[in-house]
Specification:
The chain has helices at 19-40, 43-47, 54-72, 86-104, 106-112, 114-117, 120-141, 143-153, 155-158, 173-182, 190-211, 214-226, 232-248, 251-269, 273-287, 296-305, 309-338, 351-374, 381-395, 403-437, 439-451, 455-472, 475-485, 487-492, 497-509, 519-528, 532-542, 545-555, 565-587, 600-618, 629-650; strands at residues 589-590, 594-595. It has 656 residues and is mostly helical. Among the domains are: 19-192, no CATH class; 574-656, no CATH class. Helix 13 (232-248) runs antiparallel to helix 17 (309-338) and helix 22 crosses helix 25 (497-509). It is globular, with a radius of gyration of 26 Å.
């Protein structure tokens, strides 16, 4: 069983469009990348040539990328497969012309304070631009997020009529529009800044990885390493989806890329369809939380909290590995309990063959990590990695591009950049509206007052809000909203800044595996041909560690590596031991002991005790909890001893 090269043929993103439209997409994509390289590598300073203002740069990117949304997507938000109607052509022309006009007059805009006193023609253009950003957001991200962003973007205008803590002084419509379009806190704010200074390079790297066969390599490597082991295909899904997800940053893309191979293989060796789909959904969701890339949200976070991206990567590594450890242990336990074997060795590629064909993916990955963590060149690292990957790809005959493949790669880059730019410009309106109305600080104050300085109540409020927003918005949009409103309240209560923002990121991801939405599980169910709701429930059970981890590390940041080395080591080791017990309780099979047997009540009691003991071990002790590490370890040990004794007494000779 060997995965073939990634399909990047005429089924590509722009295959159904006319030649001129595809040509413009390629040109706009190439120009966007060129401008980004010019800025991120400081070529203007180095060569003594023109150095654009930040606003010029951002407007140029918007002017090049926003029109592509109207060319690629229909009014209904579906991918276009025919000619572009005249009205979409007009929208695309306006989405190009207006931002480019603003780029040209950026000096006057800044000197004259257009966000409050724009000339009449600029006010009219700002209304049109506002509408264009929202329409591009609707076509690229869906109706739900469009409605949320549209309503909140208008908030400064109707703030006088808002109820309760949302009431504020209203702002004139023209000033609201000017602030959104010309100010530095709305569409040109943190989300678009993160996109323009960090995200672009990693998106290019992700597309290059896909178009050079990276997905097939990681999948084949996973099969070679783990395919023959107990429950092998399930472990393959974890390994391959974790690697690919950390690069692509997209749950659904990850499921559809690796799931087409891993899910049928899991079903073949005995995994039930819903369980196989749940495994892939959890593995793909975890990939977005796995360094070094972690998706667009992590880059927005780095910009938001003004910390180097390398610090976020290091902080996210421990909880991510613990999540995958819990998933791996559960799959191993499930396979052991149900007698599920691996795949025959003769059907799988050898590690030597796989590495011989794709060694350069590991080399490129190592270069990326080295530049991120050691050199701390976050902005430039993915460009170097992409360049190295493409150069080696052209030397190797296996996935070498011809002219047509190169053009399709450039078009794919442009398509991905356009849709993310539309999303980030749209959700930037949320920040702009709350900033203009002055509600950012007051909402945080009201939340703290509501919780009565109770950190636990604030955390639960944050978790529930993140989950609900994650159901209707993208993770990035949900994170941005909470970073503006809830994060200040949590950090004011004394919680670690990094831990708070990672907490919101994790809980924003939960909706991908939690019914009733569980988009990741539903995508996996379509491949597994299983009931979507059953697949979602299986994913929720398998990924249950993700519900606990954010509370663990936000209450004690040692679990994200922030603290004395000895405390970090103790907390991580006890957390791993706790996850072993939680996984054993959930699956009814304890590593080193075997199946937890006996009557239904005895088995249930043992499993509950194991889960409780695991939580006690994994929960970091601190002053906030009022419990020390030793107290929690002692309590966990007692509960584990009771569970083990009960399981041992109930164990029959037949199951020994």
């Amino acid at each position: 069983m060997t995965a073939g090269p990634d399909d990047t043929g005429e089924r590509g993103l722009t295959a159904g469009l006319s030649g001129p439209v595809r040509a413009w997409i390629a040109i706009a994509s190439a120009l966007s990348v060129t401008i980004a390289v010019w800025i991120m590598f400081g070529l203007g300073h180095a060569l003594g040539l023109y150095v654009p203002l930040e606003t010029e740069y951002l407007y140029c990117l918007i002017g090049l990328l926003l029109p592509l949304v109207f060319l690629i997507n229909t009014v209904s938000g579906q991918r276009r497969s025919g000619a572009v109607p005249f009205y979409d052509g007009l929208l695309a022309a306006a989405a190009f012309g207006i931002p480019i006009t603003f780029a040209v007059v950026s000096d006057a805009m800044l000197n004259e304070g257009w966000e409050y006193t724009a000339p009449p023609y600029a006010k009219v253009l700002s209304y049109v631009m506002w509408a264009l950003v929202l329409e591009a957001l609707r076509r690229s991200a869906g109706m739900t997020i469009f409605v949320i962003c549209a309503v909140i973007s208008l908030y400064p205008f109707y703030a006088d009529w808002a109820p309760g803590l949302l009431r504020a002084q209203s702002t004139a419509f023209d000033i609201t529009a000017g602030y959104h379009i010309f100010g530095s806190e709305s569409i040109l704010g943190v989300p678009m800044n993160a996109f323009a200074t960090l995200v672009i390079g990693f998106l290019i790297f992700g597309v290059a990885l896909q178009y050079t066969g990276g997905g097939a390599f990681f999948l084949n490597l996973a099969f070679a390493l783990l395919g023959t082991h107990r429950g092998g295909p399930g472990k393959v899904a974890i390994f391959s989806s974790g690697l690919m997800g950390s690069m692509s940053g997209s749950v659904i893309t990850n499921v559809l890329t690796t799931g087409v191979m891993s899910i049928p293989a899991m079903k073949r060796v005995g995994f039930k369809p819903a369980y196989a789909g749940g495994v892939e959904a959890c593995a793909s969701t975890g990939g977005v939380l796995m360094p070094p890339v972690m998706g667009a949200t992590a880059f927005v976070m780095a910009t938001f909290i003004e910390m180097p991206y390398s610090e976020i990567v290091l902080a996210a590594a421990i909880p991510s590995l613990l999540y995958y450890a819990g998933l791996f242990l559960q799959i191993d336990a499930y396979a052991a309990r149900h007698g599920i074997k691996g795949l025959p060795a003769e059907e799988l590629p050898s590690v030597r063959t796989v590495m011989k064909e794709g060694w350069y993916f590991i080399a490129v990955f190592a270069l990326l990590v080295f530049m991120l963590l050691y050199l701390q060149r976050e902005a430039q690292a993915p460009f170097y990695a992409s360049l190295l990957l493409i150069v080696i790809n052209q030397i190797s005959p296996r996935h070498r591009w011809d002219r047509a493949k190169l053009i399709r790669f450039v078009q794919a880059v442009g398509t991905m950049l356009a849709e993310l730019a539309a999303l980030l410009a749209g959700v930037g309106l949320i920040i702009g509206a709350l900033t203009l109305s002055g509600k950012v600080g007051s909402i945080a104050y009201e939340l703290v007052a509501f919780a009565g300085d109770n950190i636990f109540l604030l955390l639960v409020t944050g978790a529930v809000t993140s989950f609900i927003l994650g159901m209707g918005m993208t993770v990035t949009a949900a994170y941005i909203f909470l970073a503006v409103t809830l994060a200040p309240a949590l950090t004011t209560s004394g919680l670690d800044l990094m831990a708070v923002h990672l907490f919101m990121l994790y809980w924003g991801m939960v909706s991908f595996i939690t019914p009733p939405v569980s988009l990741g599980a539903f995508a996996a169910a379509s491949i597994a041909r299983s009931d979507p709701m059953k697949t979602g429930l299986q994913a929720m059970r398998l990924g249950s560690i993700i519900y606990f981890l954010p509370f663990f590390f936000v209450l004690n940041p040692a679990l994200i590596g922030r603290g004395p080395a000895e405390e970090v080591l103790m907390v991580v080791l006890s957390a791993f031991a706790g996850i072993v017990l939680i996984a054993g309780g959930l699956q009814g099979y304890l590593l080193g002991f075997g199946v937890i047997s006996g009557g239904r009540l005895v088995s249930l009691a043992c499993r509950i005790l194991l889960i409780l003991s695991g939580i006690a071990l994994a929960l970091p002790g601190n002053a906030t909890l009022g419990l020390s590490h030793s107290a929690l370890l002692g309590g966990g040990a007692v509960l584990f001893g009771l569970a083990l004794a009960l399981a041992w007494i109930a164990r029959s000779p037949r199951t020994a």
